[in-house]
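Ticket #4471: complex job returned nothing on first submit. Input attached below:
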Amino acid sequence: MKTILSSATKTVVIGPDEPFVVIGERINPTNRKKLAEELRRFDFSRVKSDAVAQVEAGARMLDVNAGIPGADEPGMLKGAVLAVMEVTDAPISIDSSTPEALEAALPAYKGKALVNSVTGEDEVLERLLPLIKKYGAAVIGIANDDTGISNDPQVRFRIARKIVERAADHGIPRENVLIDPLCMPIGANHEFGRITFETMRLIRDGLGVNMSVGAGNVGFGLPDRPPLTASFILLGMQAGLTASITNSLDPEIYKMTLAGDLMLGRDPFGKRWNAHFRRGSASKAHARPASPPGPPAASPAPTA
Amino acid sequence: MSHDDLYQRMADSVITGEAETSAALARQSLELGIAPLESIDNGFVKGIRVVGDRFGAGELFLPELVMSAEAMKAALAILEPELAKSAVARESQGSVLACTVQGDIHDIGKRIVCTMLSANGFTVVDLGVNVKIDRFVEEVKARKPDIVAMSALLTTTAPNQGKVIKLLQRDGIRDQYIVMVGGAPTSLQWSRDIGADGYGENATEAVRVAKELMARKRARPAPQPQAAAPVSAFGDAAGSTVAAVQTTAD
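Support reply: We reran it on our side without changes. The output follows.
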């Protein structure tokens, strides 16, 4: 199943036979005091520089969140979406569960947006699905409801199915629903990884929809988080994960998604893997112009 | 074995997170006729304090904190029933009623804060997640804690912290409680805006602020004036890893 998102000039396809889609998570004022202060003043310069930096680092979509408790989220979200559209052609994941904010941002967006997110709660679904339908957007549905987050993959699967079915009732086709199978901090419970991967397999085999997860959460409370995020994504890819809202600025995480694509047959002839390497070499050579040009010295013969 | 050796082993069992050892030592102490309170204060609590300090300093990590909290729980499960039989009450830094607010199911950050508060001698009742506003206010009235602590991890649920405060004001009981708030989208400014007394950027800060507010309360037993500025502090960079859990997918 293919989920198609777009900006005014660019289309991104999410699907099991497509390259993994990294959705940059950086434009979010939570735990970012300076960004929060700027957003309150409707100053979007940092939003713009974050957008450019993430796209350069490999993000093919950008999540935009302007939620600050007590502040003018509709105005800030619309402003941030417009700012991102000014500087990149990456399709946007509009990150809000507030109808007023979505009503402000969705009509301002040029293209087909992703809305992040709904849960399986009836009240949330009835509040947001009509808006998503109205603007022809796609949506992320998180596999939890008012009973909380279940540790039983079957329960998460049933909530995912409910979201897909409820979306269909509102005229939103299945390909426009991505499920978030929920990434919980593995430091709190060592079973959390296994539970999520099993949930992914159930959703892939039972619903066939695309999935996106906020992978950075997995390493909360643990040292050396980037390899944990990267391996969570990689294991997820094998279980049906097709996108992730994550830290695209960490080179190890992005590189691992490219490696995963190559391993799973989504990078014919290793074109993207090689291009990424060459881009890295080029910028290194650029950074050290003193290194001598020409072919590298012959490697020593391998010892038998 | 002297009692001091036993107390040391109790502390060590919590530090290394060996729940079975903690439980065995607790049982052993009862067989030896040691008062439960002595074992708690001289043994297990000392261990969990070390764990709290090391976690706050970034030397211990979340799974280690979880293991230590389990060990502590295993020991208390054996000692507390005995303690309840005796007339001696455990001295407390203060009582805390905690929850994650209505509409919000984030648990782990709040649990860390509750563990750290318990480790520092507070008596904590954790009502869990997605606690309805009205129910929480009823629980506050019924349990009359010193501190009312609310966690929110979503921008859409943080306003529920303010709604609880409004209800306490409506019922004329706001001044009877210290109200503390926390969670990724909240801030010192936010705590001021909604009329809370304190804000902790992370679990270490939450403990420090809770102690400070309790000291203030004890120094002035009369209800606190509304104008009291919220207590907070920044700059404990080592503790920032303890900040509440946040997922951007939310």
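The CA atoms of residues 96 and 272 of chain A lie 32 Å apart. Closing as resolved unless it happens again.
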